[in-house]
Design a protein that fits this description.
The chain is mainly alpha-helical. Helix content is 57%, strand content 5%.
């Protein structure tokens, strides 16, 4: 099996952290073939990552991939010991996915002041803040999101909170994490967790690569204008 992934993709990071937490060694993690040239649609019609390749049979969408991995590698279990505990895990994971990750992903395009649509920023950042406030109610106080151990909720929250911390200030909105004590304490704790820390190293590496690429493109454009 191969997981087509990218360091900065939060949805890929969610699956990678699951793989690390389960100690899975038979899934290779690779950059998607033809992703930058637009040819990746030949591998997956959605042309988005992550994609799990089962030898030509591909599974798209991070949530579906996570569920599949959970079924084929059931231990250690990253869902609940009871149906109610599983529901709690999925609740936190969905808040992270829908209210945080999805909105932050769309907010990333509003970083440039000259083209920023403030109405869009207000709408999307408002949903992010709403999600953080909801997490303050649901999140655990023992260093993990739910159930006192690492679960799929943590795998989704790590890249989601990474985006909040690193992207929302670039659109002129204050980072809401420090204003939510339980979320802030959780974020500090999970950042020190072995699998959380490993995933964050990759996300930060991807962010630095993206910033370097943007700076390079800006310098090239400026040089072209001066020529």
């Amino acid at each position: 099996m191969k997981l087509y992934s990218g360091d900065l993709s939060p949805y890929s990071a969610k699956v990678r952290m699951q793989i690390y937490a389960k100690g899975i060694s038979d899934i290779e993690i690779e950059l998607p073939p033809g992703f930058l040239t637009g040819e990746f649609h030949k591998v997956s019609p959605l042309a988005r990552i992550p994609v799990l390749d089962l030898g030509g049979d591909v599974i798209p969408e991070s949530e579906v991939i996570s569920e599949y991995i959970e079924e084929i590698h059931p231990t250690p279990r990253l869902l609940g010991a009871t149906p109610r505990e599983t529901a709690a895990i999925r609740t936190v994971s969905r808040i992270a996915d829908i209210y945080l990750m999805n909105n932050m992903f769309m907010l990333a395009g509003q970083g440039r002041k000259s083209t920023r649509d403030q109405a869009v920023v207000d709408l999307l950042s408002g949903q992010v803040i709403r999600g953080i406030k909801a997490l303050e109610h649901y999140i655990g106080t023992d260093g993990f999101a739910v159930a006192g151990r690492l679960t799929l909720a943590d795998c989704t929250l790590v890249p989601a909170l990474f985006l909040v911390e690193n992207v929302i200030p670039t659109v002129g909105v204050e980072n809401p994490i420090p204003g939510s004590p339980k979320v802030a304490a959780y974020w500090a704790a999970i950042s020190r967790n072995e699998h959380g820390a490993r995933t964050l190293v990759e996300l930060h590496r991807g962010l630095e690569e993206r910033r370097a690429l943007i700076a390079k493109m800006a310098a090239k454009a400026k040089a072209s204008e001066s020529a």
